[in-house]
Amino acid sequence: MPHRTRPMTAFLLFTSVNAVLCATITPVYDFVCFLPYWERRRERRRQQREGTTANSSA
């Protein structure tokens, strides 16, 4: 006898997993994008860029 499917259970599980993922995406995105590492890296790259433009113009 083949395995019985339960479409309503599958639908509810799928919907609840998607709801949890949608609820947690904003805090995860903010955590990853606004880490101090990225700010330090941005500042370091800006200083390098300013240093190369100062050296090339002098």
Automatic annotation (TrEMBL):
It comes from the Eukaryota. Residues 1-22 form the signal peptide. The keyword Signal applies. Keywords: Signal. This is Uncharacterized protein.
